[in-house]
Amino acid sequence: MITYLEAIREAQSEALEKDPRVYIYGQDIGNFGGAFKATKNLAHRFPGRVLDSPISEDAMMGSAIGAAMQGMRPIVEMQFADFSTVGFNQIVNQAATLFWRSGVSCPITVRLPSGGTPGSGPFHSQSLEALYAHYPGLILLTPATVEDAYSMLLEAVAIDDPVIFCEHKYLYYHLKAESLPKEALPVGKARISRAGRDATVVTYSAMVHEALAAADELAAEGWEIEVIDLRSIKPLDTDTVLASVARTGRVLAVGEAWPWGGVTAEVLARVSTEGFNLLDAPPMRLNSKDTPVPFHPNLWGTHRPTARTISLALRELLRA
Amino acid sequence: MKGMLPLSEAPHAAGRTSDFSETYRRAYRWMLLARVAEEKIASLYRGGKITGGVFVGRGQEAISVATGIALRDGDIFAPLIRDQAGRLAFGESLLDFTLTYLGARSGPMRGRDGNVHRGRPREGLLPMISHLGAMGSVVNGMLLAHRFQGKKHTVGAVSLGDGATSTGAFHEFINQAAVENLPLVLVITNNQFAYSTPTSRQFVCADLVDKAIGYGVRGHSVDGTDLAACLETIGGAVQTAREGGGPQFVVATSLRLSGHGEHDDSHYIPPQLRETHLGRDCLSVAEEHIRSQKWADATTIEAWHRDSHTQVEEAVAHSLREAAPDPAREDWCALSSRHLQEGPEIHPPLKY
């Protein structure tokens, strides 16, 4: 069995092995192996290519951009997605604008350990995909499975543009697979994780698993819920979403991130504008509450959507 | 990268050697060309011919040219808004300057970015973003790449002003360069004002160069109004970095002899400050030095002036004839992986 975290480590190892242009840069990632051990043993196996950085997110990003401009393929590990905001300027103003301004591409992969876990609190729990997706020139990946964590990270490194790779910390150890995949869907294609005819849940990352659990619960009552794993937030696979809504006539968009202007809002904007006539009921969305992410597990468990709140929302959607 | 202009042979780092006078003359001519070019663009701006801002390097051409002239092919240069002289000395074509200011689609930024935000990254010249201090770590990364790739003896120069020393990005990149012992040359022009803010509201250390000690890098101070001193100090810093001496932290002192941009009358600069040593015009000082050393006679200097005006007039005339960008031919694609671009319709790549 291989975990989601091990898949990320394996993908990095393979990238380092296959491509001499690849190096990894981040805090505590060298001999220590990273805060989550995503680079365990890699510094030893690839001397000089897995480098500890100072606590300087701006300079970490800026230097990765410069190295990419000179032909390297840097992977930057942010210790937590939350800290990437210190390097925000370099990501959104330097990396994201470079190709458009100068015609020089910027092949960097920024790994953001994202999302909540119990007890992590306001500054180690954030989901920032919508923030980065807002900016032109960035690609946003949000793998929900062990297989995708592996194949999408390899693809991220191969892409000639800046990729923000949102890996979910909650899935690091919980999620396991039998083996690593030999082939994968390309970036930009959503996956139908579970087929159904009564309603569509559009979601991504850790919420895919909450949605699947909710679908299981409703299946016991005879409802067939389709669950779409977006896999990539940007580009967003609107075609797969609309095709599903054409079949079910009902849609619920679910995200762990904050509600205002986020991915669920984007999904529903597209469904409403491009597929209004497909809808049999008003579209629904479910996000975390619009507060910082709480520390205590009792509060955290209610702050974010769960299988229970998703199934409640689905019942409402199915009644509409 | 070498431009179309006759002055474009790459001069190397200066010292007080037998060819010092030749380097000095060459540096002076770049300064003169930069001054003439910027005055022309400023004049077009006042005539309403320029969209966006105009930012000139009047009073700090000596510092800038000393940086650009010390660099060579394979090096990296991240200029800031007052580095026309250094850009030319590094090898930027005068046409890149005029085409970009005039918004021509045949310029290096194709009308997508303008004025001082131009560059040719493949040739080591970085197109600055507006966020001060942000280019430093990019240069660090390029130098790191050189290390990975086994390219030796290259140098990266970053140009900044006194205001940028207050940013977090500044602290992060100079510290990063020190940790990695990179051949980075940081040239800080302390021109006494960041837009309208005097240095007294920017920092309280006795001398900016003292900051070098805290980062564990070598500091240098130089009179930015004195071309010979700039060539020697900045050229020396570049040479030290090239030979493995690690990051170099140069503070050059001058006074900005213009507004922040051409929109700004700089009324906040006290007139008495202009009367001090700081207020000397480095271009006039350099020209006087050439005359007094008899490194060129009056006829030659006059010919240099004429040549600069001719080059500028030709570049401007050419650029004015060039087409503006056409939104219908713009591909509106922010990604090099075109199939991953979001949006209603992706057009074929631009073929300008």
How would you sum up this structure, described in words?
The complex is a heterodimer of chains A (320) and B (352). Chain A has 320 residues and is of the alpha/beta class. Chain A has 2 domains: 2-177, Rossmann fold, CATH 3.40.50; 191-319, Rossmann fold. Chain A contains 12 helices and 14 strands. Chain A has helices at residues 4-18, 42-45, 57-69, 88-102, 129-133, 146-158, 171-174, 207-219, 238-248, 263-274, 297-303, 307-319; strands spanning 2-3, 22-26, 50-52, 73-77, 109-114, 139-141, 163-168, 176-177, 191-194, 199-203, 225-229, 232-234, 251-254, 284-286. Chain A has a 7-stranded mixed β-sheet, sandwiched between helices. Chain A has a 5-stranded mixed β-sheet with strand order 9-11-10-13-14, with helices on both faces. Chain A has a two-stranded antiparallel ribbon with strand order 1-8. Chain B is globular and about 55 Å long. Chain B is built from 11 helices and 7 strands. Chain B is of the alpha/beta class. Chain B has a 5-stranded parallel β-sheet, with helices on both faces. A two-stranded antiparallel ribbon of chain B has the order 4-5. Chain B has helices spanning 20-46, 61-70, 84-90, 94-101, 134-149, 168-179, 211-215, 227-242, 271-274, 282-293, 298-321; strands at 76-78, 156-161, 184-190, 193-194, 197-198, 218-223, 248-253. Residues 1-16 of chain B have low confidence and may be disordered. Chain B has a single domain (20-340), classed as Rossmann fold (3-Layer(aba) Sandwich), CATH 3.40.50. In chain B, helix 1 (20-46) crosses helix 2 (61-70).
